[in-house]
Specification:
Elements (H helix, E strand, L loop, with lengths): L9 E6 H5 L5 E4 L1 H9 L20 E7 L11 H13 L2 H11 L6 H10 L1 E3 L2 H12 L1 H6 L2 H4 L4 H9 L2 E6 L2 E6 L4
Antiparallel strand pairs: 1-2, 1-3, 4-6, 5-6
């Protein structure tokens, strides 16, 4: 799956009645375009129908997403979707925060996503992450130990043990984690 890395998040909104009739009428929309269309009953600022020319067609469905790999189905809550699209346009890490929230069954909440994004950590090497975390927390204790002891610590094993207290999500070679206490 190709992931949108550079452009704004977009969704393809289609007229469901046209789709059932065998025609594909719809368009790709950014958060701002979707907001305007939703506020004007699927019309633009000038009153022109956006999804299809038929006034009697009122049903819609989202058929595709270009949102950093996220997919919310055909009929998501549009207001929440617009809000999340704007967050993702600001910083794609919000998508990872949302994914971490979904992994524990948390409901969508923009404020909570921002909190999770601020609290999550990322690392490409588990042993480096574990060593840095322990040095930050236990710096005096580690400095008091002789080097022949600290030099034998298996930091990858320590990282593995630490991960038991974290929800993690991997994207490529990077692992994103948030402590279970954050939920």
């Amino acid at each position: 799956m190709l992931v949108n890395e550079l452009s704004e998040c977009k969704v393809y909104v289609a007229c469901l009645a046209c789709y059932v009739e065998g025609k594909l009428n719809g368009q790709w929309m950014t958060a701002d375009e979707l907001d305007i269309a939703w506020d004007h009953d699927w019309s633009d600022d000038d009153g022109k129908r956006i999804l299809c020319p038929h006034d009697e067609h009122e049903e819609w469905a989202i058929h595709d997403y270009d949102m950093h790999g996220l997919n919310f189905g055909e009929h998501p809550d549009i207001v929440d979707l617009i809000e999340l699209m704007r967050l993702l346009d600001e910083d794609s890490d919000y998508g990872i925060a949302y994914t971490l929230m979904q992994s524990v069954g948390a409901d969508y909440d923009a404020q909570r996503i921002m909190e999770v994004r601020d609290a999550m950590v990322s690392y490409t090497c588990r042993s480096d992450w574990a060593r840095e975390m322990c040095e930050d927390i236990y710096s005096r204790e580690l400095e008091a130990l002789p080097h022949f002891i600290t030099g034998t610590i298996d930091w990858d094993w320590v990282g593995q043990q630490l991960e038991y207290d974290y929800y993690t999500h991997e994207v490529g070679y990077t692992t994103y984690a948030i402590h279970v206490g954050e939920f």
